[in-house]
Amino acid sequence: MFNKRVKIKKLLATEATGQEVIVMGWVRTFRNNQFIALNDGSTNNNIQVVIELGQLDDATLKRITTGASLKVTGTLIESLGKGQKVEVKAGTVEILGDCDPEKYPLQLKNRPSLEYLREIAHLRFRTNTFGAVFRVRHSLAHAVHKFFHEKGFVYLHTPIITASDAEGAGEMFRVTTLSMDNPPRNTDGSIDFKEDFFGKSTNLTVSGQLEGELGATALGEIYTFGPTFRAENSNTTRHLAEFWMIEPEMAFSDLEDNMNLAEEFIQYIIRFAMDNNREDLEFLAQRLVEEEKALPQDKRSEFGLIEKLEFVLNNGFERITYTEAIDILLNSPAYKKKKFQYEVKWGIDLQSEHERYLVEKHFKKPVIVTNYPKDIKAFYMRQNDDGKTVAAMDILAPGIGEIVGGSQREERLERLEQRMREMHIPVEEMNWFLDTRRFGSVPHAGFGLGFERIVLFVTGMTNIRDVIPFARTPKNCEF
RNA sequence: UCCCGAAUAGCUCAGUUGGUUAGAGCAUCUGACUGUUAAUCAGAGGGUCACUGGUUCAAGUCCAGUUUCGGGAGCCA
């Protein structure tokens, strides 16, 4: 019975021919006891269902409230009113699910704030904004797989649970089945993890990269796309405790191949969303304009959302070395006017204010910064011949900051072991990883891209909690 | 974790120098109207002013602490 339903997106694109149709959806508004704006999530646009006066009994009429779900059988006709091309002249109207307006927390005419909607995240999909965001998110996710598949990459499912604590990418969530009240202990009082489920201490993954390298050095090119967990006490608009990360890894590749892949990849998935979600992106662009009306002129975006995305597609990314970035900062008017709070000199990690200056003021587009000082980067990055820098690359995006972090990997065993010892990484526990360098080692490279951050960039949303269905952040694990 | 800010009706907000019974728009309810487009018009109900303590003749308003939320910073993707 349900499969005869026509999705509203399809219906709105259909010529009115007087055909009988079945539509189902949720009431957005009910005007004049006569006009129902019905939405089924396939598009932000509603189909107007028209009820003749006296067609329905009063009891049924009263049950057509905002949020109620309906099955309507009727005739698709050319609209008699202005504002829409077609409408459904109702034959029968069946209430699938009532929605008590006194209790329903989502009254759209109240212009609920994003903050309020976060508190009712289980219902916020029913708004235009979140409908658009999550349809775009879907397209981006689909495009990720499409891109890598077309390039011959293998989608590798790296583990969620890991015993490795050497990834160094942040605080980890412990995974255990031991009793919290009375855990087994060693004679010295420490907890005896030999009794734990895996017989050792385990955590949720903070990165699939190391396992990804194992795959890439056999399958050639792989990518991961899965949930990632960081137990950092980060309270920002761009951090989540549980987020989705994409990590490609390529054998026989260097830093430049890596940059080329990252740029092509980002452009590809943006293009896919532009081609497949034009209406949603236009809605989000308009939403951004409305939101920014409240801001002073100088805080508003220079370009609209669509223009920003088109610019990225047409102009690509700026590429500079870390050393060049420092020079630009030192010669900047902002530096000379002492606008920077943090010191600028070779060797520092770039602060948010520095990244923002480079991306938003100087270049006004995404920037790839390469060859960072080795002391501020991870142990596995390939050491350059200058002895000071490593073949790292970060991609910085306007309004978001770091969106990609990657590098060419150190494939020379001695260099890698030496660096691990310098940085106090337990070499013995990493033998499985070092075997890739012992047996047929090859130059290889890869990067990690925070999926929610690219969704932020494409949708123009500004808080990462608004681009994932149910955000996990410090002190917040609702739903 | 640090800095700054906020918390008043279901939602979005106003509330003056501390001073009578705390307001508006929307939502909700009742009625009217009936080709509406965030429908319109008339009326009604709706408040532990986040919590705890303090100052004061008097606190939504001032002070302290707590909680939650937002923005920024750090950590990073």
Please give a structural write-up:
This protein is of the alpha+beta class and 479 residues long. It has 2 domains: 2-104, OB fold (Dihydrolipoamide Acetyltransferase, E2P) (Beta Barrel), CATH 2.40.50.140; 126-171 and 206-466, Bira Bifunctional Protein, Domain 2 (BirA Bifunctional Protein, domain 2), CATH 3.30.930.10. The chain has helices at residues 8-12, 58-63, 114-119, 128-150, 209-219, 255-276, 278-292, 305-315, 322-330, 333-336, 352-363, 413-422, 431-438, 451-459, and strands at 20-31, 35-39, 47-50, 69-78, 86-97, 154-155, 161-162, 174-175, 202-204, 221-229, 242-251, 318-321, 367-370, 392-397, 401-408, 444-450. The strands form 3 sheets. The chain has an 8-stranded mixed β-sheet with strand order 6-10-11-16-15-14-13-12, with helices on both faces. A hairpin with a 3-residue loop joins strand 14 (392-397) and strand 15. The chain starts with 7 loop residues before the first helix and ends in a 20-residue tail after the last helix. The structure holds one RNA strand of 77 nucleotides.
